[in-house]
């Protein structure tokens, strides 16, 4: 158990819908990252938050947005869903201080299926 | 820009044998970290081992060791005494140090199958 929690574990929805994925980082971790894992694109970084502020953006679509709340949990919102958005979405958190050598701890992921 | 290359889509190894999973990387930074993660069929990402770019010794964690060759920009994972439970996808990843807690960049992974 990494200490990072994600809900829900599975999500099945229809095209055009909107969903919210939730993540709680490890206790004390200020950095939260969202990654998408799909068969064709592999593991891709979407967005990072640090202590409530957006820190870095990767290959995140405009239909997707995220935020980190004062209690440090984060939510990833996916709207106008398309079949190609079906993927495993991971949240990860990283301890401070800032370093390249801090590993990221991954949550169990949310498997999104868009029908 | 950072890039990770894993050239082996799939590997087979006999139980109790050692296996090496290849990883090469590209970065213009002098300070960076290299990581290996394991993803079993259940889907979770399990951190295995890391190597800092300034570490002079190769990292080891139990049956895992990282063969770090900085001049060749390679960071191969060696698993000794393979077990059936080692069957999984393995991802090499890196992050650069310059801008703080930066995201990881992943390779496409290698699927390891351990045969009894």
Q: Into which percent range does the helicity of residues of chain B fall?
A: under 10%
| Number of E-state strands of chain B | 12
Terminal CA distance of chain B:
41 Å
Portion in helices of chain A: under 10%
Structural write-up:
The complex is a heterodimer of chains A (115) and B (116). By secondary structure, chain A is mostly beta strands. Chain A contains no helices and 11 strands. In chain A, 41% of the residues are buried. Helix content of chain B is 0%, strand content 52%. Chain B contains no helices and 12 strands. The chains are: A mainly beta (115), B mainly beta (116). Chain A binds chain B through residues 2, 31, 33, 35, 42-45, 48, 50, 55-56, 58, 88, 90, 92, 94, 96, 98-106, 108-109, 111, and chain B through 31-33, 35, 37, 43-47, 50, 52-53, 91, 95-97, 99-109.
SSE topology sketch:
The complex is a heterodimer of chains A (115) and B (116).
Chain A: E1 5-7, E2 10-13, E3 19-24, E4 31-38, E5 42-50, E6 53-57, E7 64-68, E8 74-78, E9 87-94, E10 105-106, E11 110-114
Parallel strand pairs in A: 2-11
Antiparallel strand pairs in A: 1-3, 3-8, 4-5, 4-9, 5-6, 7-8, 9-10, 9-11
Chain B: E1 3-5, E2 10-14, E3 19-21, E4 24-26, E5 32-39, E6 46-52, E7 60-61, E8 64-69, E9 74-79, E10 88-96, E11 105-106, E12 110-115
Parallel strand pairs in B: 2-12
Antiparallel strand pairs in B: 1-4, 3-9, 5-6, 5-10, 7-8, 8-9, 10-11, 10-12
List keywords for this structure.
heterodimer, A: 115 residues, mainly beta, 7-stranded mixed β-sheet, 4-stranded antiparallel β-sheet, 11 strands, globular, B: 116 residues, 6-stranded mixed β-sheet, 12 strands, 52% strand
């Amino acid at each position: 158990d990494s200490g990072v929690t994600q809900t829900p574990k599975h999500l099945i929805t229809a095209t055009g819908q909107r969903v919210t994925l939730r993540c709680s980082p490890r206790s004390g971790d200020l950095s939260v990252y969202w990654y998408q894992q799909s068969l064709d694109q592999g593991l891709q970084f979407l967005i990072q938050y640090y202590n409530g502020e957006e820190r870095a953006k990767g290959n995140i679509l405009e239909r997707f947005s995220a935020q980190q709340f004062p209690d440090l949990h984060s939510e990833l919102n996916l709207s106008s869903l398309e079949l190609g958005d079906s993927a495993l979405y991971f949240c990860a958190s990283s301890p401070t201080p800032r370093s390249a050598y801090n590993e990221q701890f991954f949550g169990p992921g949310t498997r999104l299926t868009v029908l | 820009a950072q890039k990770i290359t894993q050239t082996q889509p799939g590997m087979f190894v006999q139980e109790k044998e050692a296996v090496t999973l290849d990883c090469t990387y590209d970065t213009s930074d002098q300070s960076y970290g290299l990581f290996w993660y394991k993803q079993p069929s259940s889907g979770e990402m399990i951190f295995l081992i890391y190597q800092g770019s300034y570490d002079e010794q190769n990292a080891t964690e139990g049956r895992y060791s990282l063969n770090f060759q900085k001049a060749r920009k390679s960071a191969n994972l060696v698993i000794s005494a393979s077990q059936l439970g080692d069957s999984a996808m393995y991802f090499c990843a890196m992050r650069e140090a310059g801008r703080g807690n930066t995201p990881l960049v992943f390779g496409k992974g290698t699927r390891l199958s351990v045969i009894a």
